[in-house]
Amino acid sequence: MRNNFAAARSMYQRDSVLSASPAKILTMLYDRLLLDLQRAEVAQRAEEWPNAGPHLIHAQDIVTELMTSLKPELWDGGPALLALYVYVQQQMVAANVRRDIGKTRECIRLLEPLRTAWHEAALQVSMTEAAHRRDAVAG
To answer: Does the pLDDT at position 6 exceed 90?
Structure first.
């Protein structure tokens, strides 16, 4: 029974990602990035270094994905966002190698406002798209 539930959950999560809009995928990446960093911080606080490492590495993988999908030349804030991604990636590596919880906390502090902003932007896009669909149906 447990394996069936796990398989169904996995399929649901995969389908959710495959059918998600680009804005939703971005917010999902940020949510997981911050979750990984928070889990790493908890493990670091408990000095459970073998548990902190995988979370920091997964967070680095997400930032790499964010960097490779970013097109900094398309908007004024692009180069600054890319520079921030490079910086937090370096801090995550240092947090892992040096077992430095302060660097993990700094990454959380820098990325949390971005997560909030991307969620707000995604909501605005969703509301605008819904209004356009409603207007198309009505008109």
So the answer is: no
By CB atoms closer than 10 A (0-12, 13-18, 19+), residue 25 is middle
What is the sign of the dihedral through the CA atoms of 49, 96, 23 and 17? negative
User: What's the rounded Cα separation, in Å, for the pair 39 and 12?
Assistant: 24
Token pair in block for residue 16: 């959710």
| pLDDT given at position 125 | 84
Residue ranges of domains in the chain, CATH in brackets:
22-138 (1.20.120.340)
Sign of CA dihedral 126, 132, 134, 136: negative
Entry pTM: 0.83
Query: Cα–Cα distances in Å, from 115 out to 4, 17, 91, 122, 134?
Result: 33, 18, 18, 10, 28
Judge contact between 44 and 52, C-beta under 8 A.
yes
Q: How far apart are CA 96 and CA 49, in angstroms?
A: 8
What pLDDT digit, counting tens, does each position of 36-89 carry?
A: 999 999 999 999 999 999 999 999 999 999 999 999 999 999 999 999 999 999
